[in-house]
Write a structure and sequence with these properties.
- By secondary structure, the chain is an alpha/beta fold.
- It is 53% helix and 11% strand.
- The protein contains ten helices and five strands, in the order ααααβαβαβααααββ.
- A five-stranded mixed β-sheet has the order 2-1-3-4-5, sandwiched between helices.
- Helix 7 crosses helix 8.
- The chain is globular.
- The chain starts with a helix and ends with a strand.
- The relative contact order is 0.13.
């Protein structure tokens, strides 16, 4: 009986010790994963050399890859504190995006970008004006960005009001009326088509029309941007962001 009791005690001790070691193994795995995750965190910002080395086509490819990350919820981890400190030295963004002011369109996240990666200009209906064009000239001719993106988005409120011919001026909003007037030339309906923002097919088409109009207006109003685009040192493209899917569709 004593021998059996001793054997039982030894067996129980082995089981207990083995189970005690298991948490340590799990801890080692967790620490290893944490170390790997720490290594993957981006702390750098774009340099002049990196900006110079990229072509417009390569930048667009990177932006498309970034949008895929956004759609798949695999955004790059960044050390914003470290990036902020490094960006103080200078900025060398690869592109400038003109987007609507809509709060549901987070431009940097949509393209998986961090501090110093991109210029962002925002105005309701993603229209151009002299200040926006001046900002684009600074971003490209002065700061070296090689891509301009005009990005509209689905369910755009400004476009909807332009379609519905909202009279903002009568409500005391002359500036808003001027903005809507900039969008109205993009409003074209097919014969017999209902001209209403409730017509989703029409609205989406006009959102695209408005993007194309803005691209054309910028090239017409800025000889500098047109010159850079003609020399193939700058690419200006239109795009539409789908708020339901998160996908950015680039226009031809």
């Amino acid at each position: 009986m004593k021998l059996n009791s001793f054997a039982t005690l030894v067996f129980f001790t082995i089981i207990v010790c083995t189970s005690c070691k298991e948490p340590n193994k799990k801890q080692e795995v967790t620490e290893s994963k944490d170390a790997q995750t720490s290594q993957d965190i981006v702390k750098s910002v774009l340099t002049l050399e990196e900006q110079n080395a990229m072509t417009a086509e390569q930048i667009l490819d990177k932006l498309k890859e970034g949008n895929e990350n956004f759609v798949n919820n695999t955004l790059t981890q960044r050390d914003h504190s470290e990036q902020r400190r490094k960006a103080v030295i200078g900025q060398y963004p690869k592109a400038i995006v003109l987007s609507c002011v809509d709060s549901r369109v987070p431009v940097e996240d949509i393209f998986d970008l961090g501090i110093g990666d991109i210029f962002v200009a925002r105005v309701a209906g993603n229209i151009e004006n002299s200040d926006i064009i001046g900002s684009m000239e600074f971003a490209t001719a002065v700061a070296g960005s090689k891509v301009i993106i005009i990005m509209g988005h689905t369910a755009c409120g400004a476009v909807k009001h332009a379609i519905d011919n909202t009279d903002a001026k009568s409500m005391g909003m002359t500036s808003l009326q001027n903005l809507l007037n900039e969008i109205k030339p993009a409003v074209h309906a097919k014969k017999g088509e209902e001209i209403s923002s409730k017509n989703k097919t029409l609205t989406n088409r006009i959102i695209t029309n408005n993007v194309r109009k803005t691209v054309g207006d910028i090239l017409a109003k800025s000889p500098e941007i047109a010159k850079l685009e003609k020399k193939n040192t700058l690419k200006i493209v239109g795009a539409v962001y789908n708020m339901e899917t998160g996908i950015v569709k680039f226009l031809e």
